[in-house]
């Protein structure tokens, strides 16, 4: 891996007075004499708001104006600062927003050895091909390609993640015989499939999650047995 400390020291740090002001506002709200609601929040109590703010940002990106994106980015940033301030006040294993930034800096430098080190990756495809290798070097304790895939992802997004991890093992899932030509057609087909499922009293999200659970179990069996099934049928039979 690339030494994270050397190249970053050469980068010119720019002042961020507005960011510092936002941090100061948050600290004031959570300090004695500030806002009682803010002071009582925990990582767990804020989770729902983090999810909501992330979805509102996605909506702004997909359907809003640049000003909407600006506002929603601020809300997501505030959630990060809020969690860091909660962590700083913990009696055990405290950390600050500076620690969060330092960890993120080290991670990004480590995952870009083609920029900060001597690795060659001149195209986006080459970077993507090396990305999982660099991640594995950072996290040697992970024993499965499925480690780190959040269980709370929406089923479709989780499906893409699991399929990508499976492909890394040489495991493929047979695609449709009539693949869609673009995302517009794909969306219409998915919507029609959900409508058909609803008409039969079936829940599409739960059904896909069940299929993904079978796929995940099959991948773990393949890893344990040192085998690489070639199709999804091999995995879930």
Automatic annotation (TrEMBL):
Residues 41-116 form the NTP pyrophosphohydrolase MazG-like domain. InterPro entries: MazG-like_dom (IPR004518), NTP-PPase_MazG-like_N (IPR048015), NTP_PyrPHydrolase_MazG (IPR011551). Pfam families: MazG. NCBIfam families: mazG. This is MazG family protein. It comes from Microcella humidisoli. The lineage of its organism: Bacteria, Bacillati, Actinomycetota, Actinomycetes, Micrococcales.
